[in-house]
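tl;dr need the bound structure. longer version: we got a ligand (pyridoxal-5'-phosphate) that a collaborator sent over and nobodys looked at where it sits. i said id run it. heres the input, straight from their email, havent touched it
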Amino acid sequence: MSSAHRRVVLEVNLGTVRNNFQKIATAVSPCGVMAVLKANAYGLGARAVGEAVAGAGVNRFGVAELDEALDLLYLGVPVQILGSVLAEEIPEAVACGIVLPIPDRETGQRISDACVRQSRQALCHVKIDTGMGRLGFPADGDADVRFVGSLPGLVLEGVFTHFPMAYRRGSAVTEAQIESFLAMLGRLDSAGMGFRLRHAANSDAINNVGRVYREPFNMVRTGINLYGCFDTEGARAVDVRSVLTLRTRLMAVRELPAGATVGYGCTFQTPARMRVGTISAGYADGLPLALSNRGRVLIGGRVCPVVGRISMDYTTVDLSQAPDARSGDVVTCIGTDGDDQVNIDEWAAIKGTHAYDIICSIGGRGERRYRSV
Ligand SMILES: Cc1ncc(COP(=O)(O)O)c(C=O)c1O
């Protein structure tokens, strides 16, 4: 689809992404920083975001799956898969030098087999499950970790764990995770197994758990902070700024009589004669259904409340406060217009979710437009 004809534009300010990266890197220095670019950089565009931080001193990129990793190799920055790998992903990952996670014996064995078959080595990070309950060796699984350490072809460059509750400052859960992780590292070290890179912190931990960017930890993994967002709960210690605006166009301005119903389910009825605008964006473009009769957009700097239910391609808004609005006008769904601003947190609060869900849901139909200042 030609970008000239896209109605919805997601604009990402790569200059702000770079500034955010630098603020995070300064906050955690001398720790290294992995930029987490999985899921197409949370929907914003992995290549563009990767290029923005590649020259700013990023240590590596973190992704979820092989295709995401292959797509970023051209930048010359090490690319690491975070969770686990399927058997069929391993041969190509090894051949292409992707840094691989080892969350269990079986995966370690498969990666080793591929290395032997290809006469190559693979850089790997051992994943320890200290309480996330998803993937990884248990924190008392020393024997299994030592087993993978003995397998041919594997270079165990790093060891890591992941926090489910790092947004909560002083959380006993996080403290217990850190303790069990460090205890395991100590035992493995005594058994002669050291790891060059040791990491646990995501954005939540960077903002709430200071000790995870001090020795023995020497790398953090940040995603949501790069994009200027935070989890709903917890401190916002690093001064990162929002990087995105979501805009569309006003398709029609219509004068409806009193008592007219608007949208699927007829959830809104005009209390009096009303100018209703139909904007060219709906839930397929990331506007949460929960904004129905509750959200707002900005047109010409004026607030226009959503009326009726959000539909797939269109949303209807009350134009009472925007008497000059005309078909074709720019509509700000997220971002600043005049003195007002609609931000991601506002949508997240209405939907009862977090910023991750909002930005990952923006959808692929709109044009991604990148600014560097
Ligand atoms: C293992 C791992 N580390 C780090 C991150 C980055 O998290 P955040 O975006 O909260 O910084 C993620 C993302 O979910 C992850 O899965």
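gonna send this back to them w/ a short note. The pocket of pyridoxal-5'-phosphate is lined by residues 36, 82, 162, 202-204, 221-225 (CB under 6 Å).
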